[in-house]
Design a protein that fits this description.
- It is a single chain.
- A 9-stranded mixed beta sheet has the order 2-1-3-4-9-8-7-5-6, sandwiched between helices.
- It is built from 6 helices and 9 strands, in the order E-H-E-H-E-H-E-H-E-H-E-E-E-E-H.
- With 249 residues, it is of the alpha/beta class.
- Strand 8 (202-208) and strand 9 form a beta hairpin.
- The protein has one domain (4-243): 3-Layer(aba) Sandwich (Rossmann fold).
- The radius of gyration is 17 Å and the shape is globular.
- 28% of the residues lie in helices and 19% in strands.
Length: 249
Amino acid sequence: MPDLDSSPPRIVVTLAAPEDADDPDLQRRRNDRYADAVERHGATAVRLTARATAAEREAAFGSMDGLMISGGADIDPRRFGQPVDGATDIDEARDELEAVAWAAADARSLPVLGICRGLQAINVFSGGSLLQHVDGHAGAAWGSGPALTHPIRLVGETRLASLLGPEPEIEVNAYHHQGIRAADLAPGLIAAAWADSTAGPLVEGAEATDGRFLVGVQCHPERTESTPAAFERLFAAFVEAAGRVGRPS
């Protein structure tokens, strides 16, 4: 029998289903970027979409050592008690998948990394809300032109700053049209990075206040052509944290 403690950590990566996308091939390429980001640091990526069966979900959640919530469609505003007011491309099936994935990870205090929508999902599932539209942050869609970029300011003494520093400001890509303001941030989370916007300062990174590896970033660091190489340290630290999780009996 192999030594389970030496096996690669299993990271569930929630993804948009290519079968439901306007361009399935492009969606597969997007999904590959997320999986590759953890696999190149030694993890096994367990890809999961809203098309997964109940049995597939149960198996994935029961064996996961970490959870990555990737980018994608807008979260249904009803999940944070608001009517639709700027949200456009809502995927209720994915909301449901990720709410269950979040609950399973949270129950065991597993490491969680959120990217773009993933940061927003962490905030909503933790009791926060979202600003449903921010002008000027979406830029060209991935694969259709150069990425829009802007600087973010790292907050000192945070996990994110320790991983992405030592410079206090870095340039990142911007593919989002929604955001998190200070008043939208959920209890138990702190801002780890900020950016200016037409709507005022937005949270570009957040993390747990209790020391657990729970980190979300608003940019897309899996798109390595338009984000600093320092983000590789974030992926590596996430995989390392997942590797320290004991397998369930």
